[in-house]
Description:
53% of the residues lie in helices and 12% in strands. The chain is built from 6 helices and 13 strands. The strands form 5 sheets. The protein has a 4-stranded antiparallel β-sheet with strand order 5-4-7-8, with no helix packed on it. A 3-stranded antiparallel β-sheet has the order 1-3-6, with no helix packed on it.
Amino acid sequence: MEDTVEDPPTSAVLLDHCHFSQVIFNSVEKFYVPGGDVTCYYTLTQQFIPRRKDWIGIFRVGWKTTREYYTFMWVTLPTDIKSKSTEQQEVQFKAYYLPKDDEYYQFCYVDQDGVVRGASIPFQFRPENEEDILVVTTQGEVEEIEQHNSELCKENQELKDSCVSLQKQNSDMQAELQKKQEELETLKSINKKLEQKVKEQKDGWEAELLQLKEQNQKITSENRKMEVRVDQLQVQLSTQEKEMEKVVQGNQDKTKQLEHMKKENGQLFLNLTEQREHQKTLEQTVEELKQKEATAVKKQQELTDQNFDLSKRLSENKIICDALRREKEKLEGENDFLKREISRLMSYMGLDFDSLPHQVPTSDQGGAGQSPGLVYGNPYSGIQESSAPSLLSSKKCRTCPSDYADDIFYHTSEEQQHIQTPYLNCPICDKSFSAKEKQVFEDHVFCHTL
Length: 450
Protein backbone atom coordinates (compact mmCIF):
# COMPACT_ATOMS: atom_id res chain seq x y z
CA MET A 1 0.00 0.00 0.00
CA GLU A 2 1.31 3.46 -0.82
CA ASP A 3 2.45 5.60 2.10
CA THR A 4 0.00 8.52 2.21
CA VAL A 5 -1.61 10.61 4.93
CA GLU A 6 -4.72 11.32 2.90
CA ASP A 7 -7.65 8.90 3.28
CA PRO A 8 -9.50 7.74 0.18
CA PRO A 9 -12.82 9.43 -0.65
CA THR A 10 -15.66 7.30 0.67
CA SER A 11 -19.43 7.61 0.78
CA ALA A 12 -22.39 6.29 2.75
CA VAL A 13 -24.24 5.55 -0.52
CA LEU A 14 -25.83 2.09 -0.46
CA LEU A 15 -25.27 -0.59 -3.10
CA ASP A 16 -28.49 0.32 -4.94
CA HIS A 17 -26.83 3.49 -6.25
CA CYS A 18 -23.60 1.79 -7.49
CA HIS A 19 -22.69 0.74 -11.05
CA PHE A 20 -20.65 -2.48 -10.97
CA SER A 21 -20.35 -2.96 -14.75
CA GLN A 22 -18.29 0.12 -15.63
CA VAL A 23 -14.99 -1.46 -14.48
CA ILE A 24 -14.25 -5.18 -15.13
CA PHE A 25 -11.68 -7.09 -13.09
CA ASN A 26 -9.65 -9.71 -14.97
CA SER A 27 -7.73 -12.81 -13.91
CA VAL A 28 -8.98 -12.85 -10.35
CA GLU A 29 -7.82 -16.03 -8.58
CA LYS A 30 -9.97 -18.08 -6.24
CA PHE A 31 -7.30 -17.68 -3.57
CA TYR A 32 -4.01 -15.88 -3.05
CA VAL A 33 -1.06 -17.20 -1.09
CA PRO A 34 -0.47 -15.21 2.16
CA GLY A 35 2.85 -13.38 2.44
CA GLY A 36 3.07 -12.46 -1.25
CA ASP A 37 2.16 -9.35 -3.20
CA VAL A 38 -1.15 -9.41 -5.10
CA THR A 39 -1.57 -7.83 -8.53
CA CYS A 40 -5.06 -6.71 -9.49
CA TYR A 41 -5.89 -6.54 -13.20
CA TYR A 42 -8.87 -4.48 -14.42
CA THR A 43 -10.27 -2.96 -17.62
CA LEU A 44 -12.15 0.38 -17.94
CA THR A 45 -15.20 0.39 -20.19
CA GLN A 46 -15.92 3.19 -22.66
CA GLN A 47 -18.83 4.47 -20.53
CA PHE A 48 -16.51 5.33 -17.63
CA ILE A 49 -13.87 8.09 -17.45
CA PRO A 50 -11.29 7.67 -14.65
CA ARG A 51 -10.20 10.55 -12.41
CA ARG A 52 -7.18 11.32 -10.28
CA LYS A 53 -8.73 10.39 -6.89
CA ASP A 54 -10.07 6.98 -7.99
CA TRP A 55 -8.91 4.00 -5.95
CA ILE A 56 -9.22 0.22 -5.70
CA GLY A 57 -9.96 -1.31 -2.31
CA ILE A 58 -10.14 -4.81 -0.88
CA PHE A 59 -13.53 -5.32 0.84
CA ARG A 60 -14.78 -8.20 2.95
CA VAL A 61 -17.79 -9.87 1.34
CA GLY A 62 -20.97 -8.48 2.87
CA TRP A 63 -19.86 -4.84 2.93
CA LYS A 64 -22.54 -2.14 2.67
CA THR A 65 -20.70 1.16 2.15
CA THR A 66 -17.30 2.14 0.75
CA ARG A 67 -16.17 3.13 4.24
CA GLU A 68 -15.76 -0.57 5.12
CA TYR A 69 -12.62 -1.16 3.03
CA TYR A 70 -9.74 -3.20 4.49
CA THR A 71 -6.93 -1.63 2.40
CA PHE A 72 -6.69 0.38 -0.81
CA MET A 73 -4.37 1.56 -3.60
CA TRP A 74 -4.61 4.67 -5.77
CA VAL A 75 -5.16 3.88 -9.44
CA THR A 76 -2.84 5.07 -12.20
CA LEU A 77 -4.56 7.11 -14.92
CA PRO A 78 -4.17 5.80 -18.49
CA THR A 79 -1.86 7.73 -20.82
CA ASP A 80 -4.75 8.56 -23.17
CA ILE A 81 -7.93 9.03 -21.16
CA LYS A 82 -10.01 10.07 -24.18
CA SER A 83 -9.10 6.99 -26.15
CA LYS A 84 -12.00 4.60 -26.78
CA SER A 85 -9.78 1.53 -26.69
CA THR A 86 -9.98 -0.66 -23.59
CA GLU A 87 -6.53 -1.42 -22.22
CA GLN A 88 -5.91 -3.59 -19.20
CA GLN A 89 -4.67 -1.72 -16.13
CA GLU A 90 -3.14 -3.05 -12.93
CA VAL A 91 -2.30 -2.12 -9.35
CA GLN A 92 -0.16 -4.10 -6.90
CA PHE A 93 -1.04 -4.61 -3.22
CA LYS A 94 1.92 -5.18 -0.89
CA ALA A 95 1.79 -8.35 1.25
CA TYR A 96 2.22 -6.35 4.48
CA TYR A 97 -1.17 -4.63 4.05
CA LEU A 98 -3.18 -7.71 2.97
CA PRO A 99 -5.65 -9.55 5.26
CA LYS A 100 -4.29 -12.44 7.34
CA ASP A 101 -7.55 -14.41 7.78
CA ASP A 102 -9.29 -16.81 5.40
CA GLU A 103 -12.48 -14.75 4.91
CA TYR A 104 -13.82 -14.01 1.47
CA TYR A 105 -12.78 -10.68 -0.06
CA GLN A 106 -13.24 -8.91 -3.38
CA PHE A 107 -11.72 -6.01 -5.35
CA CYS A 108 -13.89 -2.87 -5.76
CA TYR A 109 -13.16 0.13 -7.98
CA VAL A 110 -14.31 3.38 -6.23
CA ASP A 111 -14.28 6.78 -7.96
CA GLN A 112 -13.38 10.06 -6.26
CA ASP A 113 -17.07 10.63 -5.35
CA GLY A 114 -17.10 7.44 -3.26
CA VAL A 115 -19.30 5.50 -5.73
CA VAL A 116 -18.45 1.87 -6.62
CA ARG A 117 -17.91 1.43 -10.40
CA GLY A 118 -16.90 -2.25 -10.46
CA ALA A 119 -16.49 -5.36 -8.26
CA SER A 120 -14.63 -8.65 -8.71
CA ILE A 121 -15.57 -12.19 -7.80
CA PRO A 122 -14.86 -13.25 -4.19
CA PHE A 123 -11.46 -14.75 -3.28
CA GLN A 124 -9.53 -15.95 -0.21
CA PHE A 125 -6.04 -15.61 1.24
CA ARG A 126 -4.86 -19.16 2.03
CA PRO A 127 -1.90 -21.44 1.19
CA GLU A 128 -1.77 -22.94 -2.30
CA ASN A 129 -1.54 -26.54 -1.09
CA GLU A 130 -4.53 -26.23 1.19
CA GLU A 131 -7.28 -28.58 0.17
CA ASP A 132 -10.71 -27.29 -0.60
CA ILE A 133 -12.92 -27.64 2.40
CA LEU A 134 -16.55 -26.99 2.99
CA VAL A 135 -17.02 -23.48 4.41
CA VAL A 136 -19.66 -23.34 7.13
CA THR A 137 -21.03 -19.90 7.76
CA THR A 138 -23.40 -18.63 10.41
CA GLN A 139 -26.97 -17.60 9.79
CA GLY A 140 -26.04 -13.94 10.18
CA GLU A 141 -23.33 -14.24 7.51
CA VAL A 142 -25.76 -16.05 5.23
CA GLU A 143 -28.27 -13.23 5.70
CA GLU A 144 -25.60 -10.68 4.93
CA ILE A 145 -24.63 -12.56 1.76
CA GLU A 146 -28.27 -12.83 0.75
CA GLN A 147 -28.77 -9.14 1.42
CA HIS A 148 -25.70 -8.41 -0.67
CA ASN A 149 -27.07 -10.57 -3.47
CA SER A 150 -30.45 -8.85 -3.21
CA GLU A 151 -28.74 -5.51 -3.54
CA LEU A 152 -26.88 -6.82 -6.61
CA CYS A 153 -30.19 -7.85 -8.13
CA LYS A 154 -30.73 -4.48 -9.71
CA GLU A 155 -27.38 -4.80 -11.46
CA ASN A 156 -28.35 -8.13 -13.05
CA GLN A 157 -28.74 -6.68 -16.49
CA GLU A 158 -25.43 -4.90 -16.23
CA LEU A 159 -23.78 -8.18 -15.19
CA LYS A 160 -25.32 -9.80 -18.21
CA ASP A 161 -23.73 -7.09 -20.33
CA SER A 162 -20.50 -7.84 -18.51
CA CYS A 163 -20.89 -11.51 -19.39
CA VAL A 164 -21.38 -10.56 -23.04
CA SER A 165 -18.25 -8.42 -22.79
CA LEU A 166 -16.40 -11.36 -21.23
CA GLN A 167 -17.65 -13.65 -23.99
CA LYS A 168 -16.45 -11.16 -26.53
CA GLN A 169 -13.09 -11.07 -24.81
CA ASN A 170 -13.15 -14.86 -24.77
CA SER A 171 -13.77 -14.94 -28.51
CA ASP A 172 -10.98 -12.44 -28.99
CA MET A 173 -8.73 -14.59 -26.89
CA GLN A 174 -9.76 -17.64 -28.85
CA ALA A 175 -8.94 -15.82 -32.09
CA GLU A 176 -5.61 -14.87 -30.63
CA LEU A 177 -5.19 -18.44 -29.50
CA GLN A 178 -5.90 -19.61 -33.05
CA LYS A 179 -3.23 -17.31 -34.35
CA LYS A 180 -0.84 -18.65 -31.78
CA GLN A 181 -1.77 -22.20 -32.74
CA GLU A 182 -0.96 -21.36 -36.35
CA GLU A 183 2.33 -19.96 -35.20
CA LEU A 184 2.86 -22.97 -32.96
CA GLU A 185 2.63 -25.22 -36.02
CA THR A 186 5.94 -23.75 -37.06
CA LEU A 187 7.21 -23.59 -33.48
CA LYS A 188 6.25 -26.92 -31.91
CA SER A 189 8.20 -26.35 -28.76
CA ILE A 190 6.40 -23.09 -28.16
CA ASN A 191 3.10 -24.61 -29.21
CA LYS A 192 3.11 -27.10 -26.36
CA LYS A 193 3.66 -24.36 -23.84
CA LEU A 194 0.93 -22.21 -25.37
CA GLU A 195 -1.50 -25.13 -25.39
CA GLN A 196 -0.86 -25.71 -21.73
CA LYS A 197 -1.37 -22.03 -21.01
CA VAL A 198 -4.58 -21.90 -23.02
CA LYS A 199 -5.83 -24.97 -21.24
CA GLU A 200 -5.19 -23.37 -17.88
CA GLN A 201 -6.90 -20.16 -18.95
CA LYS A 202 -9.79 -22.18 -20.29
CA ASP A 203 -10.20 -24.00 -17.01
CA GLY A 204 -10.16 -20.67 -15.16
CA TRP A 205 -12.76 -19.23 -17.47
CA GLU A 206 -14.98 -22.26 -17.08
CA ALA A 207 -14.74 -22.02 -13.31
CA GLU A 208 -15.55 -18.33 -13.48
CA LEU A 209 -18.46 -18.99 -15.81
CA LEU A 210 -19.76 -21.68 -13.45
CA GLN A 211 -19.46 -19.34 -10.52
CA LEU A 212 -21.16 -16.57 -12.47
CA LYS A 213 -24.00 -18.96 -13.32
CA GLU A 214 -24.45 -19.81 -9.66
CA GLN A 215 -24.42 -16.11 -8.80
CA ASN A 216 -26.89 -15.47 -11.61
CA GLN A 217 -29.26 -18.07 -10.15
CA LYS A 218 -28.98 -16.54 -6.70
CA ILE A 219 -29.51 -13.05 -8.15
CA THR A 220 -32.55 -14.31 -10.08
CA SER A 221 -34.02 -15.71 -6.87
CA GLU A 222 -33.32 -12.49 -5.07
CA ASN A 223 -34.81 -10.59 -7.98
CA ARG A 224 -38.07 -12.44 -7.49
CA LYS A 225 -38.03 -11.62 -3.81
CA MET A 226 -37.37 -8.00 -4.67
CA GLU A 227 -40.34 -8.00 -7.05
CA VAL A 228 -42.56 -9.19 -4.19
CA ARG A 229 -41.07 -6.49 -1.99
CA VAL A 230 -41.68 -3.90 -4.72
CA ASP A 231 -45.33 -4.96 -4.91
CA GLN A 232 -45.64 -4.55 -1.15
CA LEU A 233 -44.01 -1.13 -1.35
CA GLN A 234 -46.41 -0.13 -4.13
CA VAL A 235 -49.35 -1.13 -1.93
CA GLN A 236 -47.89 0.92 0.93
CA LEU A 237 -47.31 3.81 -1.47
CA SER A 238 -50.94 3.74 -2.63
CA THR A 239 -52.08 3.69 1.00
CA GLN A 240 -49.84 6.63 1.83
CA GLU A 241 -51.11 8.51 -1.23
CA LYS A 242 -54.69 8.06 0.01
CA GLU A 243 -53.65 9.28 3.45
CA MET A 244 -51.88 12.21 1.82
CA GLU A 245 -55.07 13.09 -0.09
CA LYS A 246 -56.98 13.03 3.19
CA VAL A 247 -54.35 15.29 4.77
CA VAL A 248 -54.53 17.69 1.80
CA GLN A 249 -58.33 17.76 2.04
CA GLY A 250 -58.06 18.43 5.77
CA ASN A 251 -55.61 21.26 5.10
CA GLN A 252 -58.02 22.79 2.58
CA ASP A 253 -60.85 22.61 5.12
CA LYS A 254 -58.60 24.19 7.72
CA THR A 255 -57.67 26.93 5.21
CA LYS A 256 -61.36 27.69 4.64
CA GLN A 257 -61.95 27.75 8.39
CA LEU A 258 -58.97 30.07 8.78
CA GLU A 259 -60.36 32.48 6.18
CA HIS A 260 -63.75 32.38 7.88
CA MET A 261 -62.08 33.04 11.24
CA LYS A 262 -60.16 35.95 9.70
CA LYS A 263 -63.45 37.49 8.51
CA GLU A 264 -64.97 36.96 11.96
CA ASN A 265 -61.85 38.44 13.51
CA GLY A 266 -62.19 41.54 11.31
CA GLN A 267 -65.85 41.90 12.29
CA LEU A 268 -64.96 41.43 15.94
CA PHE A 269 -62.23 44.04 15.57
CA LEU A 270 -64.79 46.55 14.19
CA ASN A 271 -67.16 45.70 17.03
CA LEU A 272 -64.31 46.08 19.49
CA THR A 273 -63.48 49.51 18.04
CA GLU A 274 -67.11 50.60 18.40
CA GLN A 275 -67.21 49.23 21.93
CA ARG A 276 -64.02 51.11 22.79
CA GLU A 277 -65.52 54.35 21.46
CA HIS A 278 -68.71 53.65 23.40
CA GLN A 279 -66.58 52.83 26.44
CA LYS A 280 -64.73 56.15 26.08
CA THR A 281 -68.13 57.93 25.97
CA LEU A 282 -69.24 55.99 29.03
CA GLU A 283 -65.98 56.81 30.79
CA GLN A 284 -66.51 60.52 30.07
CA THR A 285 -70.10 60.22 31.35
CA VAL A 286 -68.88 58.35 34.43
CA GLU A 287 -66.23 61.02 34.99
CA GLU A 288 -68.88 63.75 34.79
CA LEU A 289 -71.11 61.78 37.15
CA LYS A 290 -68.17 61.33 39.52
CA GLN A 291 -67.57 65.10 39.45
CA LYS A 292 -71.27 65.72 40.09
CA GLU A 293 -71.25 63.09 42.80
CA ALA A 294 -68.19 64.72 44.38
CA THR A 295 -69.97 68.10 44.22
CA ALA A 296 -73.11 66.56 45.71
CA VAL A 297 -71.10 64.82 48.42
CA LYS A 298 -69.33 68.06 49.19
CA LYS A 299 -72.64 69.94 49.31
CA GLN A 300 -74.15 67.16 51.42
CA GLN A 301 -71.16 67.40 53.74
CA GLU A 302 -71.68 71.16 53.99
CA LEU A 303 -75.40 70.65 54.70
CA THR A 304 -74.49 67.97 57.24
CA ASP A 305 -72.04 70.36 58.88
CA GLN A 306 -74.69 73.10 58.85
CA ASN A 307 -77.26 70.68 60.27
CA PHE A 308 -74.74 69.62 62.91
CA ASP A 309 -74.07 73.30 63.74
CA LEU A 310 -77.81 74.03 63.88
CA SER A 311 -78.38 70.97 66.04
CA LYS A 312 -75.54 72.07 68.28
CA ARG A 313 -76.94 75.60 68.45
CA LEU A 314 -80.44 74.23 69.09
CA SER A 315 -79.13 72.12 71.96
CA GLU A 316 -77.28 75.16 73.27
CA ASN A 317 -80.48 77.29 72.91
CA LYS A 318 -82.42 74.63 74.81
CA ILE A 319 -79.82 74.79 77.54
CA ILE A 320 -80.09 78.63 77.49
CA CYS A 321 -83.93 78.43 77.61
CA ASP A 322 -83.72 76.09 80.57
CA ALA A 323 -81.29 78.45 82.26
CA LEU A 324 -83.54 81.42 81.48
CA ARG A 325 -86.54 79.56 82.80
CA ARG A 326 -84.71 78.78 86.03
CA GLU A 327 -83.55 82.42 86.17
CA LYS A 328 -87.13 83.57 85.67
CA GLU A 329 -88.36 81.32 88.48
CA LYS A 330 -85.55 82.62 90.64
CA LEU A 331 -86.47 86.21 89.79
CA GLU A 332 -90.14 85.53 90.49
CA GLY A 333 -89.14 84.16 93.90
CA GLU A 334 -87.02 87.24 94.55
CA ASN A 335 -89.95 89.42 93.37
CA ASP A 336 -92.26 87.70 95.85
CA PHE A 337 -89.63 88.18 98.53
CA LEU A 338 -89.35 91.87 97.67
CA LYS A 339 -93.11 92.26 97.73
CA ARG A 340 -93.21 90.78 101.20
CA GLU A 341 -90.37 93.01 102.23
CA ILE A 342 -92.17 96.04 100.80
CA SER A 343 -95.34 95.04 102.61
CA ARG A 344 -93.38 94.72 105.83
CA LEU A 345 -91.79 98.15 105.31
CA MET A 346 -95.13 99.72 104.47
CA SER A 347 -96.68 98.28 107.55
CA TYR A 348 -93.69 99.54 109.47
CA MET A 349 -94.29 103.03 108.06
CA GLY A 350 -97.99 102.88 108.79
CA LEU A 351 -99.14 102.40 105.26
CA ASP A 352 -101.45 99.78 104.00
CA PHE A 353 -99.76 97.78 101.21
CA ASP A 354 -103.09 96.49 100.04
CA SER A 355 -104.23 100.04 99.27
CA LEU A 356 -101.36 100.49 96.82
CA PRO A 357 -102.02 99.74 93.17
CA HIS A 358 -100.80 96.30 92.16
CA GLN A 359 -99.54 97.58 88.82
CA VAL A 360 -97.15 100.41 88.32
CA PRO A 361 -98.49 102.77 85.59
CA THR A 362 -96.54 102.53 82.42
CA SER A 363 -95.88 105.13 79.83
CA ASP A 364 -98.72 103.74 77.73
CA GLN A 365 -101.26 103.94 80.61
CA GLY A 366 -100.25 107.46 81.68
CA GLY A 367 -100.85 109.11 84.98
CA ALA A 368 -104.64 109.00 84.68
CA GLY A 369 -104.76 105.26 84.40
CA GLN A 370 -107.32 103.59 86.65
CA SER A 371 -107.29 100.28 88.41
CA PRO A 372 -109.25 97.75 86.43
CA GLY A 373 -110.73 96.40 89.69
CA LEU A 374 -112.52 99.69 90.61
CA VAL A 375 -115.67 100.91 88.85
CA TYR A 376 -115.41 104.55 89.92
CA GLY A 377 -111.74 104.82 90.14
CA ASN A 378 -109.34 104.88 93.10
CA PRO A 379 -110.28 107.62 95.58
CA TYR A 380 -106.74 107.61 96.90
CA SER A 381 -105.15 108.01 93.60
CA GLY A 382 -104.10 111.59 94.33
CA ILE A 383 -102.54 110.58 97.58
CA GLN A 384 -100.91 107.64 95.95
CA GLU A 385 -99.60 109.76 93.12
CA SER A 386 -98.22 112.32 95.55
CA SER A 387 -96.90 109.84 98.02
CA ALA A 388 -95.80 107.08 95.70
CA PRO A 389 -93.04 109.04 94.06
CA SER A 390 -91.61 109.80 97.43
CA LEU A 391 -92.12 106.36 98.87
CA LEU A 392 -92.03 104.02 95.94
CA SER A 393 -90.10 105.79 93.32
CA SER A 394 -89.54 102.82 90.96
CA LYS A 395 -86.59 102.42 88.70
CA LYS A 396 -86.09 99.88 85.92
CA CYS A 397 -82.94 97.82 85.76
CA ARG A 398 -81.17 97.83 82.44
CA THR A 399 -80.21 94.15 82.73
CA CYS A 400 -83.54 92.73 84.00
CA PRO A 401 -87.28 93.64 83.60
CA SER A 402 -87.96 94.23 87.39
CA ASP A 403 -88.91 97.64 88.92
CA TYR A 404 -87.57 98.47 92.36
CA ALA A 405 -87.66 101.32 94.85
CA ASP A 406 -84.69 103.54 95.34
CA ASP A 407 -83.77 102.11 98.64
CA ILE A 408 -83.95 98.51 97.51
CA PHE A 409 -82.41 98.99 94.05
CA TYR A 410 -78.94 97.71 94.59
CA HIS A 411 -76.36 95.55 92.87
CA THR A 412 -73.13 94.02 93.80
CA SER A 413 -69.84 95.32 92.56
CA GLU A 414 -69.81 92.64 89.86
CA GLU A 415 -73.34 93.65 88.84
CA GLN A 416 -72.29 97.30 88.70
CA GLN A 417 -69.45 96.37 86.42
CA HIS A 418 -71.91 94.28 84.34
CA ILE A 419 -74.34 97.25 84.09
CA GLN A 420 -71.60 99.51 82.77
CA THR A 421 -70.78 96.93 80.03
CA PRO A 422 -72.47 97.41 76.57
CA TYR A 423 -75.44 95.10 76.13
CA LEU A 424 -77.74 93.73 73.38
CA ASN A 425 -81.56 93.91 73.52
CA CYS A 426 -83.81 91.27 71.91
CA PRO A 427 -86.13 93.02 69.40
CA ILE A 428 -88.89 90.51 70.14
CA CYS A 429 -88.99 90.06 73.91
CA ASP A 430 -86.88 93.08 75.06
CA LYS A 431 -84.46 90.77 76.82
CA SER A 432 -80.95 92.17 77.26
CA PHE A 433 -77.64 90.33 76.81
CA SER A 434 -74.07 91.32 77.46
CA ALA A 435 -71.83 92.08 74.48
CA LYS A 436 -69.69 89.11 75.53
CA GLU A 437 -72.72 86.86 75.07
CA LYS A 438 -73.19 87.66 71.40
CA GLN A 439 -73.50 83.99 70.41
CA VAL A 440 -76.12 83.42 73.12
CA PHE A 441 -77.98 86.51 71.90
CA GLU A 442 -77.99 85.22 68.32
CA ASP A 443 -79.17 81.76 69.44
CA HIS A 444 -81.91 83.45 71.49
CA VAL A 445 -83.13 85.43 68.51
CA PHE A 446 -82.95 82.29 66.35
CA CYS A 447 -85.16 80.40 68.84
CA HIS A 448 -87.97 82.93 68.17
CA THR A 449 -87.96 81.86 64.48
CA LEU A 450 -88.44 78.13 65.29
